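Let us practice reading a record.
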Amino acid sequence: MSSPDLRQRAGKPENKTASSDAKVKAIVAKEDTGISLVDILRVLAGLLLLNVTLSYFITNDSFFWGNRPSWTRPAKAVAIVTQYLKGPVRLTDAELLRYDGSDPDLPIYLAVNGTIFDVSAGRDYYGPGGSYHGLAGHDATRAYVTGCFGEDISPDIRGAEEMYMPLEDEEADAKSGITKAEKKIRRQKELKEAMKKVRAGVEHWEGFFTGGKGGKYFKVGTMKREDGWLEKLPRKTLCEQAQKSRKKRKAAS
């Protein structure tokens, strides 16, 4: 016949086991309801995969909704690194002519507003026989503004703002009774707006060649010009195409 002490000692392991089971169940329940770092990473990876898949099927061209980062273009990345190691390019207008694509051993450069860009990735367009070959090897800022890619291959944009200025209509002014002082103020206001449009046009093309959508081209340096170079150039008149685009001022202005 067992004593009470033996029965009491025999009962203690059962209590410990029950307590351990309860702790294990609590831990399991906590793990089942919690979100781990691995779970978060899995969700993010799934969303990224879904995003790039949808982008490719919708755009049929890009995994990044039309954007092409430099690291997705190995050739461009190599060119940028190589150019970085060489240092920024500094060329005169005469030196820039060598980089028009005629020499297959040289990159193709063009300039906008004094900034030189490498457009070698677009050799089919800017190389010999390409639609825009006339722009290669030149700073043709004026042509980008006026749209006259034949006669306006020049960095001089003086007077280009005239294309955004309305044509004078003396008869309409006479009927409106506008004074000379009012005409002067109107002219200054219109000139300010026209200059703003010219700057916006130049900035658009700078952005395009800096990377823009597609990111094929990149900046390599700046033009080397002496002080007062612009004043030494003969002032250009507005090209025919730009002149024809001008409209008469509205009678109410």
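A brief commentary: Residues 140 and 153 are 4 Å apart (CA to CA).
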